[in-house]
Write a structure and sequence with these properties.
By secondary structure, the chain is α+β, with helices and mostly antiparallel strands. The protein has two domains: about 40 residues; about 60 residues. The protein contains two helices and five strands. A hairpin with a 2-residue loop joins strand 2 and strand 3. The longest helix has about 35 residues. It is elongated and about 65 Å long. The two termini are about 40 Å apart.
Amino acid sequence: MSELPERPDVPQETHSGLAQAWASAGEAAQQVSETRQTEQETTARTTSGTTPAPVTYAVLPAGGAFHVKRDAEVVGYYTDRESALADARKLAGGDSPSRVVIHDDDRRPGEEETY
């Protein structure tokens, strides 16, 4: 949401309270939008055919560190491969059907685990 415009006929205290409420409403609208998007993605995965498409968690090297992606979105950054892999496995275990794809140092897909 855009910023609440100032009005000279409204006392500063009232304007500050309104601006704060305006900002809170914007945050709430963003959260609702994100929740709806997640629900739509879940529904699409579970209702598009007889078998839902698996969610892919990828463990990738990233400039001396590692990150985990859920489908195309980065969901975590890690200092070592073992921590990234452990978290990817934990996430995949709670998101069935899913898979973990472990990429090599050249970012090529390697080992794959299914959940």
